[in-house]
Design a protein that fits this description.
- The complex is a heterodimer of chains A (113) and B (115).
- With 113 residues, chain A is mainly β.
- Chain A is globular and about 45 Å long.
- Chain B is mostly beta strands.
- In chain B, strand 4 and strand 5 form a beta hairpin.
- Chain B is globular.
- The termini of chain B are far apart.
- Classes of the chains: A mainly beta (113), B mainly beta (115).
């Protein structure tokens, strides 16, 4: 089942902050965050694992609430280069979904000067 | 290290034809996953291969198939193309099993247009 991202779109001015949320109805093993610019491949930002481990870029922060199966991506002091579509991909815990990512519909982030 | 490469980058086919797309993972990576990306459906998982074995499959018809070779390179094939198959096809590689606890690196994709 596809995770739900919110908001669907957000517009910022340089220097402003934003939070993008990702919510799943299923128990998760991990949440992966990617950013995709128009015409380009998705670029890895962050992995959050069940149990608290995180791997990702230093300037990106995120959280994973295991009880609520929700993750949030925090973009602070936004720059023009942050513009793009942000996707969360979720890996379900257990079963036949080992290693398989299901992606949300994406959040379009636009940063203006 | 060279990134994930996909060939061809663009492809135009007509309905009923078949197509083969290729993906070369990052050196040392044994897992390749394929995704279809469309404006309406977003990023959808097609299948994943690890050490030449298909480990996971998404909800796509049997016209979509794939394989992985001993050097970890992967191909996907779509037979009897339909207009709705027009999409960006992305492959991603990882050192582990699919996305299990590890980063998946995406290639630039193959843009398939079916006329």
């Amino acid at each position: 089942q596809q995770p739900v991202q919110s908001p669907q779109a957000v517009i910022l001015r340089e220097g402003e902050d934003a939070v993008i949320n990702c919510s799943s109805s299923k128990a998760l093993y991990s949440v992966h965050w990617y950013r995709q610019k128009h015409g380009e491949a998705p670029v890895f930002l962050m992995i959050l694992l069940k149990g608290g481990e995180q791997k990702g870029h230093e300037k990106i922060s995120a959280s994973f609430n295991e009880k609520k199966q929700q993750s949030s991506l925090y973009l602070t002091a936004s720059q023009l280069s942050y513009s793009g579509t942000y996707f969360c991909g979720t890996e379900r815990a257990g079963g036949t979904s080992y290693g398989k990512l299901t992606f949300g519909q994406g959040t379009i982030l636009t940063v203006h000067p | 290290k060279a990134g994930v490469t996909q060939t061809p980058r663009y492809l135009i086919k007509t309905r009923g034809q078949q197509v083969t797309l290729s993906c070369s993972p990052i050196s040392g990576h044994r897992s390749v996953s394929w995704y279809q990306q469309t404006p309406g459906q977003g990023l959808q998982f097609l299948f994943e291969y690890f050490s030449e074995t298909q480990r996971n499959k998404g909800n796509f018809p049997g016209r979509f198939s794939g394989r992985q070779f001993s050097n970890s390179r992967s191909e996907m094939n779509v037979s009897t193309l339909e207009l709705g198959d027009s999409a960006l096809y992305l492959c991603a590689s990882s050192s582990g099993v699919g996305a299990r606890g590890d980063t998946q690196y995406f290639g630039p994709g193959t843009r398939l247009t079916v006329l």
